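Lecture notes, unit on binding sites. The following record was shown on slide 14. It pairs a sequence with magnesium ion.
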Amino acid sequence: MTIQRVASKWAKTKIILNNKGLASYVPSTRQYTLEALEEMLNIHTLVFIKPDRGTYGIGVMSVEELAIANQAGETETTYKLRHDQKTEIFSSVESLHNTLQPLFKGQAYLIQKGIHLLRHQGRPFDLRVLTQKSPAGQWVSTGIIGRVAAKNKIITNHHSGGVVHHYKPLMLEHMTDTEAENIRRELYVLGVNVAAQLQKSYPHLKEIGLDVAIDNRWNIWILEVNTKPALFPFKKFFKDPSVYQKVKKYANAYGRKLSSKKKAN
Ligand SMILES: Nc1ncnc2c1ncn2[C@@H]1O[C@H](COP(=O)(O)OP(=O)(O)O)[C@@H](O)[C@H]1O
Ligand SMILES: [Mg+2]
């Protein structure tokens, strides 16, 4: 039987938003247009712009609204675009849009409220929650890892130099053991609930990888849901081999070939 994969972040986001219990985990998201960019920047001081069908963090950018003093000492609103390692400042949303437009190369993009991620040694990190269908047909969250961005990067993806860390020590830099365990439990339940919600539209779904941000008030935000999540980070990393054994056992049972490292995200 085939394993269902869904590329469009927008399609998946709309399905998750249909569930009241899950909608509050999703940062406000719009399809990119100049109007949407203007409206989002009126509401949020940080937004992320990303390809609807992107992977590996490719094409993910951020825009931050900044008030700076000009030469006359007046305060001006500017927009700081970060893309790859580059930073550019714009004095209007229109000029920002004119620079963004050719970068899109005709592809659909999304704008999402930007989350100020928790940090480890000054670098932002987010979390990956892996949820899989068990051989008995139940959704089970089988693992969680932290991903720390490379220096001066705004994205945590492995392909962009992001490094995998254990969940607990990352979280303990910000909270107590009990709080970290409470959040872990909430994330495991969230993975199961998101999988169940997506399965209503995609009946052959077998596995998901939730990209989750935690902000400095410990709110949990779903940045995206991958339907072909990488399994290899769960292999190398854990001292406890039973974690990857279970991941592998479930994956084998639903027919995933584990050699597809290159194409997974
Ligand atoms: N709204 C956001 N706020 C903060 N960081 C974000 C946001 N959206 C994406 N990111 C960062 O960019 C990375 C890649 O974005 P993501 O939506 O997961 O796309 P991809 O499919 O390319 O992995 C995330 O793991 C996270 O580090
Ligand atoms: Mg991602």
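Take-home: The pocket of adenosine-5'-diphosphate (ligand 1) is lined by residues 27, 48, 50, 54-57, 60, 112-115, 117, 126, 155-157, 211, 213, 223-224, 265 (CB under 6 Å).
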